[in-house]
Amino acid sequence: MANNAVSLEGVSLVFGGQDTEHVLAVDTIDLEIPQGEFVAIVGPSGCGKTTILNMLSGLIKPTEGSVKRHGKEVTEPSQDIGYMLARSALSPWRTARKNVELGLQFHGVGRTERRARALELLELLHLQDFANAFPSQLSQGMQQRVAIARTLAIDPDLWLMDEPFGALDAQTRLVVQGEFISLWEKSKESTVIFVTHDLEEAVLLADRVLVMTARPGRIKSDNVIDLPRPRVIDELRFDDSFKAAEHKIWKELRDEII
Q: How far apart (Å, rounded) are the C-alpha atoms in residues 202 and 204?
């Protein structure tokens, strides 16, 4: 439907060519995600989570079925998508501010405007004192916050996030999760599709958690997370409602991992 931010209809993807073994990565995926929703995807390694992100981004095309954004077929990458990976992938020769400005520069935003936008985002993420620092001078957590700011700067309609906090230590991850979800909740206009191996993270952040089967990946269950927003991450993780939701989903996920 046109009012969905993204939809997958009967989507399957086979990897392999004429001289290589064919592998069915994902099988008959049907999925609809309304605009402004936060959806997390969990599942065992190799079940096709990243493959789904790559199809939504237009980087690869499904073997069967259709991938749509706002009712239109996805045929190529789009500049209004923010794609964030586990590693910050910052340009080492650019300062934090200039890394945040990069996407705006590609969009043709003037120097004064993009500088102001970058500084605003860095301040929101408590990095205003490190605007002129290079990535090598920043901790991993600080680098990842710069990457969040860079993604936010272009005001993406769709965020695709592939284990974006996976490289952080446990304490830093909680801080960055909290800052990220706070920023998203303030606008809640962008749609987020968030791949993670961390079930706690999925339940803490998302409106829905999709559990995928072992390869070939299919959607085993679609779980609504009925927890209030805004979410205070470091408190919510001790809440009984959160623990019950996590436990319910874990029982489904555990069977696929085994």
A: 6
Query: What gap in Å lies between CA 16 and CA 4, rounded to an integer?
Result: 31
Structure tokens at 142: 């600080």
Say what the pTM is. 0.90
Bridge-partner residues for 7, per DSSP?
A: 32, 68
Q: Is-contact 111 188, C-beta < 8 A?
A: no
Are 30 and 220 spatial neighbours (Cβ–Cβ below 8 Å)?
no
Q: What does the pLDDT profile of the chain (258 residues) look like in tens digits? A: 457 899 999 999 998 766 668 889 999 999 999 999 999 999 999 899 999 999 999 999 999 999 999 999 999 988 889 898 877 789 999 999 999 999 898 888 899 999 999 999 999 888 999 999 999 999 988 998 899 899 888 888 899 999 988 888 888 888 889 988 988 898 768 999 999 999 999 999 999 999 999 999 999 999 999 999 999 998 999 999 999 999 999 999 998 887
Place of tokens 């997958």: 8
